Structure formats: C-alpha cells, structure tokens
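Chapter review: from sequence to fold.
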Amino acid sequence: MLLTGRAGCGKTTLLKSLLDRFPNRFGGFYTEEVRAYGERIGFTITTVDRTRSALFASVSFSKSKFRVSKYGVDVAGFERIAVGEIRSAIAEDKPLAIDEIGKMELFSGEFRTLLEEVFSSSLPVIATVHAHSHPFTDALKKRSDVELITLDRSSFDAVLRRLTDTVADRIFNQKESR
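The token string follows.
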C-alpha cells in the first residue's frame, strides 16, 4: 500500500498512528521535520523501533552535492539507517513501514534498488510517497499489486480506520479493536 498526498496532509502522522496500533510488528523507518524557532531546518530519519535516528537533510549541509530546495542531503547517513533497517526487516520477515519515498530519499541508488526488491517480494509494505511526479515513484504508483491511497486532512480519520482494519485483517489476520 502506498499512501500519497500533498506535503503537510498528515502522511507521517498517519503512519506513526498506525504503527502505534501494532507495536513491534513492523520494521522500517519514518522521517520527521526538525524545527528551530518556528522554522523547518531539516529532517531526521528514525527506525520504527526508535533505536536509531539521524539527521539526514539540513540547511547546514551546505557542502552536500545532493540538494532539495535549501536542504543538503546526507545520502550515506540516510542509507546507514534506511537500508540497514529494510534489510533487517526482510531477514526477520517483518512487514515494512517506509516513510517516505520522496525526492531526498531517491538520491540513494541503493535505496531504490532495495525498494524494487521489496516491491517484487511477498513482504507486506505500507509506505508514504510524495505526490510529485518522478519516474521511479510514478512506476511504483502504477504497479498492479499496489493499492494507492490519497490522503488529505479531511480524510485522515477514515483512512486511518481503513488502514488499521486492512493491516489487522490482511497482514496479521486478526480482528483489531479500536
């Protein structure tokens, strides 16, 4: 399942809410804004189990050759956490939660290759993906085995209920009590 929507619509919040309902059942990572004095200055990547976290994009990474807007991206730092965490989930046969498949993350060729492997496997995946057009993510969104769900602020609660029920039923084969 791919969850998409405009920036700020709640994709990460929804994914984290879903993970809270299924503690210790997923592998993967999420990304979050870093703010200072009310201004966004970067992004962190954190493993789902919250054991590892790192700043991977920042306005202070001025020497990085990988840039999105005012942010320099530490691709190697991103790969240390994201790629390692995805490989661990595969080895443990754990469903994956990936937040996000976006411009910054797609600088990593290793990440893209691993995503192709994961999406071609039988491992369940719930991922957030940017709404922008990009050849890699456009191809993921068009896969016949992918359910694309568009989120906006007004649909947040309904999508969370639907995903909770779907994950409980299709992935964990249990009735989920809300």
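Two observations follow directly from the output. The chain has one domain: 2-169. The CA atoms of residues 63 and 72 lie 7 Å apart.
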